[in-house]
Amino acid sequence: MAWIYLLIAGIFEVVWATAMKLSNGFSNLPYAALTLVGMVISFAGLVMATKHLPLSLAYPIWTGIGAVGSIIVGVVLFHDQLPAITWVFVILLIVAIIGIKLTAGH
Questions:
Q1: What pLDDT score was predicted for residue 104?
Q2: Which residues cross the membrane (predicted)?
Q3: Cα(70)–Cα(16) distance, rounded to whole angstroms?
Q4: How many Cα atoms are found within 13 Å in the side-chain-facing hemisphere of 30?
């Protein structure tokens, strides 16, 4: 169950970051509210996950999900342009997240 909490927390990390961008400096109230709700859910999921997983495992995976998810949202939703070499490092980040999970023994 801890892994599910961590996955949900990571997804909501992407939700709040995206909503923050869409809030236009917190001037768009619905997106500003979604940012805050997303933050609360994201942190709550991390708290629940760290009850059963070590912080040294949960935190980097949480931030990694948020980082990779935010990159994908930025490219798809906001049409961010990334050089090809950047995608190499995104792939390395994904490999690192998976590696941390597989080698941690939890």
A1: 84
A2: 33-50, 57-78, 84-104
A3: 10
A4: 0
CB atoms within 10 A of CB 29: 9
Q: What is the mean pLDDT of residues 10-39?
A: 98
Residue 15: what residue type? Answer: V
Largest separation between any pair of C-alpha atoms in the chain: 45
Determine phi and psi for 26, rounding to 5 degrees: 65, 20
State the average pLDDT over residues 38-45.
Answer: 98
pTM of the model: 0.91
Tokens 């709700």 correspond to 37
| pLDDT for 22 | 98
Domain count, the chain: 1
> From residue 3, how far is each of 9, 29, 76, 86 by CA, in Å?
10, 32, 27, 28
CA gap 80, 59 in Å, rounded:
26
Residue 46 and residue 58 in contact, taking contact as beta carbons nearer than 8 Å: yes
